[in-house]
Structures are given as C-alpha cells and as structure tokens.
Amino acid sequence: MSLGLPSKLPASPSIGELINGAAPTFSFEFFPPKTPAGEQLLWQAIRELESLRPSFVSITYGAGGTTRDTTVAVTERVATETTLLPMAHLTAVNHSVAELRNVIGRLAGAGIRNVLAVRGDPPGDPMGEWVKHPSGISYAADLVRLLREVGDFSVGVAAFPYKHPRSADVESDTRWFIDKCRAGADFAITQMFFDADEYLRLRDRVAAAGCDTPIVPGVMPVTRMATIARSSQLSGAPFPAHLLSRFERIADDEAAVRELGIDLCGEMCARLLDEGVPGIHFITLNRSTATREVWQQLATTPAVVA
After folding, report:
1. Residue 210's closest CA among 181, 188, 238?
2. What is the pLDDT of residues 132-143, one digit of tens each?
3. Residue 11, exposed/middle/buried by CB under 10 A (0-12, 13-18, 19+)?
4. Distance of alpha carbon 120 from alpha carbon 301, whole angstroms
5. Which residue numbers are catalytic?
6. I want to staple 16 with a disulfide (CB 3.0 to 4.6 A). Which of 122, 154, 175, 244 is the partner?
7. What Å distances lie between residue 169 and 106, 129, 176, CA to CA?
C-alpha cells in the first residue's frame, strides 16, 4: 500500500526511542486554539516553555476531529518555527480511511514522524454513542496499524490508569490496551490522574499480562476548584477522595488551592520518577505558569531534570 509518501521521512528524533532511553523524558501537551485570543495564549505558552528544553511537545485533536486542520497546522508550525520536537494527535472518529491517509500524508510531508493514535470521543458528548464512520475504522489499534503501513512513524497510544470510561472493567481495559501495543505502538501516554498509585497499578497489571511497552504518566496540577469539578470528565476517573478533602478545607482561598495543587503535583511527579517512570507528560491547557512551577520543584531534586 502506498500513499506516495517519502520512503523515509526526514531524519528527526523518534519519541519512542527517547522514551525508551536511559533518562526520563519531560514533555508538554497543548490543544489547538479556536479563537485569535486562544492562538495568542497558545504561542505565548509554547515560547515560554520552549526555554525549558522539553523532550517533545504534543498537539491534541478536537472531539470528533473538529480541529483536525488546526492540529496539523500547529504541529507543522512547531516543527518549522521552534526548536521543539512535535507529536501530532490523530483520532479515528468521524474520519474515513481516505481522510486519515490524507492527514498522515500531510504530517509526513512536514517531516513529522511522531503521532499519538487515539480512537477519539464523539462530538458534542464525550460519553455519547461512538459510531464508526461508514468508511472508517473502529479501534485505536486499527489506526496504529494504518500509521505503520503507510509511513516510518513512531506511534504512541493512550492509557487509562483508572480505566477507560467505555470499558466494562479493568481486565477488559487492560486487554484493549495490550491490543494497541501489539498493533505496533512504541509507547503510551496516560490520561491525567492525581494519585500515583493509580499509575503504578496500571503499570503492574500491564506488566503482569506480559506487555513491556513504556507508559508515560500524563499529569496536570489542580490550580482551582473548577478543575476538580471537571476532573471526572477530563480523566474518566473520580477525583481521589483523600485529596478532595484537603482541597475542600481551603476551597474559599484561591491562592491556597493553587499552591496545594502545584505542591501535590510536584510531590507525585517526584514519587513517580523514584519509581522509574520513563518520563512525565505535562497537560498544560495552553498555560505555562503552573507547569513551570512544578518543573522548578522537580529541578531542585538531584538528577531529576537535566
């Protein structure tokens, strides 16, 4: 099968190789802007975080593929106008195979060889019924295989520390994850979580099932109570009760909530690094300040941030 893609993409680092390296990676996640003000905020955050020299950055894809063109455009711009190594998210929802091949070809043409393959949520309601495009694919594993067939890509997939909201139970969720890895994924990045034990349980059960694909934890500091209120939708998991009680005691003090959220995120990241995680992926929501504060906490820990 051929898309007319280059037989070999221009030489650029493979995120899979970086994550499999000896030192932990540090990376940031952004989402495509929908307004001029949002675009300004995004590029301000990118420029501010660029100075931290992350291992890579990722650009998400809107629900139902609604920001497909913007995702590709932002990823292209990061690749050509910054020193950062970009990874594009690619979702299968609402796309035919032909459309997916077109997006893959555009990424390849820009020299982008790192892609995070996810099935994606239905537009409008993330928990609504997932309907396959008549000429599309059904599962993230199919998208991994498509990327492997048509180009020299390093492919990542999503992992869910609690479990995917659509999975019946943890056991079936683990099987679905391993299917994606066996389809050709080089690495995985988790949905956000707020308790290190959730990640460690995921890693243990995947390893027990005979899968050694490296799993990078995705983290985001709580900076306001509204983050907690939305956490179930954002992460697919209930916010940990033992942490919720700590935030509730200071809910009326916005500065105290923010300080606690950053401290807890920093402590969790330090513990994860002690446990030997292959990296930390910061979900920024297109803002740099809180991420930089967590980074600075980690930087005071010997041998954590090079």
Report:
1. 181
2. 666 668 789 999
3. exposed
4. 36
5. 29
6. 154
7. 37, 18, 11
- Which amino acid type is present at position 154? S
Q: Give start and end residues of each alpha helix (H) in the chain.
A: 15-19, 36-50, 68-81, 97-109, 140-150, 170-182, 196-208, 225-235, 241-248, 254-274, 289-299
Evaluate whether 15 touches 31 at the Cβ level (below 8 Å): no
Over residues 9-46, the pLDDT tens digits come to: 445 689 999 999 999 999 999 998 889 999 999 999 99
Residues 6+ apart with CB under 8 A from 200: 275
Over range 113-131, report the average pLDDT: 70
Distance separating alpha carbons of residues 19 and 39, to the nearest angstrom? 29
Find out whether 121 and 63 touch, Cβ atoms under 8 Å: yes
Total residue count of the chain as it appears in this document = 306
**DSSP string of 283-300?**
E-TT--HHHHHHHHHHHT
Beta carbons of 195 and 152 less than 8 angstroms apart? no
Alpha-carbon distance values, 259 to 49, 77, 304 (Å): 20, 34, 21
What is the C-alpha end-to-end distance of the chain, expressed in Å?
A: 42
Task: Name the residue among 93, 200, 89 with its Cα closest to residue 138.
Answer: 93
Residues with Cβ within 8 Å of 102's Cβ and at least 6 positions away in sequence, in order, are: none
DSSP codes joined into one string, 43-54 = HHHHHHHHTT--
No. of helices (H) and no. of strands (E), the chain: 11, 9
30, two tokens:
């952004």
Asked if residue 63 has pLDDT above 60, the reply is no
**What is the DSSP code (8-state) at residue 9?**
P
